[in-house]
# Entry
Amino acid sequence: MATVSYSSWHVFSRICAGILGSYVFTWGLIALGASSLIAAGTEFHEATSLVSMLGFLVFLCTFCWAFVAASVVRVWAVLAGGGALMTLSGWWISRALA
Amino acid sequence: MFASFRLSFAWLHTWFGLVLGFVLMVAFFFGSLAVFDREIDRWALPQTRIEAQPMPSFDKILASRFATITEPDPEEIEAASKRVTKPLPDKLTPAHFGAYTTHRDPVLGMYVGFDVPNSTLPDDHAYGEITIDPRDGHVLPRDRLALGSAFFYPMHFSLHITWYDIGYWIVALAAMAMLAAIVSGVVMHRKIFREFFTFRPGKKLLRSTLDLHNLTGVVALPFHFLWSLSGLIIFAGIYFPVLDKMMQPLVEAHEREEATHTGLDTHPSGKPGTLASVDAMVTAARERWASRGVPGEVGFLFVNHVGNSNASVSIYRDSTDRVATAEGLHFEGATGRVIFEDPPTGPIETVNGFLSGMHLQQFKHWTLRWLIFFGGLLSSVCIATGFIFFVEKRKHAHAREGHPGSRWVDALAVTTVTGMVVATLFVLVMNRALPEDLAHRDTWEKTSFWIAWLLTFVHAAWRSGAVLQARMSKAWAEQCWVIAVSGALAVVLNAATTGDHLGRTLAAAYWPVAGVDLTLLVSAFIAVIVARRLQQHASHPSPATASLEEPEHA
# Structure
């Protein structure tokens, strides 16, 4: 195999980003997606079903991406940072709605 | 992570597939058995070998049975006591009753949900459950194990690891690894259509294993993908409880709004009330179904806010004629008046219901049921050949370096392939061999399963020393012989202890028991062929190394 040799720390970081980072990102996407769809007038169960189904496919994509992306720092920034940002905005929209 | 996209995916495929593949074997194998869980229950509980029964009379039978459930099951109380901020009171208040059955159930499951006060969860309940014979209402003994629906079925999604539901999370991660393995597997192999028709059993083991891995992978690709995905979707509420955890005010606002147009109260009134005849409500529901020309038995009966003036009764049509979507009719408990009928679901809810319904298979379609069973076995073969490929590819190099990697992978592969079948057959044998009136019989059966499985691991680990010398572990063939003997023994013991031998069950066309017996015999027969092939192979080992057309694979 023509491999570039990476430290085990790097591999561990990729695995954590793939699993935990994707979890945070998906959580945020569900939070923001559900609250925005409801705010836009989508029926409650339709909105929550859609985002929870899509969530697993999004998780799959970000999980795979964490292993093929060139920079692990970027992976962490997008997944954890984006996830936290979406979670906060989702929470804020839901408060405004309730 | 590596020099190329494909190499990164190959790494992902190999390592996640390997580590979580052992969990996936459990999920797919026991998931396949769960397709026939009710039939396995009949085999394991001879006193329930009767025809499927409709929902019995509520007024004559169910009402008095529900009244006997006065508290949650001990393990439910224990679990609930960890979720509360103040100690649980001695007496809990029943909140709702439920009874459920399907077209394959001769017995009826019943439960009472009790309010858990001061819980950290919203709307928390602890449950007391019983199973009854619907013909006369007598309660079946609690310590008899429904092997299919209460052991194999929950095994496939929870591994029976109940501590913080950790089993659900391990299986979820494995399902996600399965999806990623499918995506990465497709990326690694450009010749996907050729693989549909490529199996060269006569070639070297490494090549034929990879052929079979690819073939089973692509032939059932939609099955592998959709069953992994729908399994995750079914438990989406456990894996991503986003709304419960951080949007409770929004959820409550929606519930209040929904209650205004359904007329179904979200909270009990607190004033005592009585129930009108539930049988009359069932009759009204049946008339409504008949007038629409849809077949219908009651699949699920639910009484909410029991004992309160605003109690309601919900009657759901069973799902024999459709993949999904609940069809509920809701009555005012005090009067028997129809309050609300579930409207047709929206497009997204319909898709969600279809994916869950397809996975859970409450519909009546035996051809499809068998196809789903074989789909699960194909997934198992695909994962198992992945293990074998991993070992075959590395064992010569590992043997030269004295690296124990392939040895342990081989031992775990034996444990989760043949060992799991051995443990399954052993619990069937014990189910028939243990004295019928043994106290805590269910615990004995479960314990025997885990011990048998542990022993197959010890055996596999002991025999895997051969892999260190780049030879095949004898454990594979030896465990196949155990499968052959215990499969046949289970059939003999069933005939001896119940009298329901194949001659009788086939003549009576009693398929639940005849089907299990025949499957056991076929499995035993296949195990004999495999064991003999493996032993022939061991006496004429193939040449050491093989060259592969896809050197980057795994």
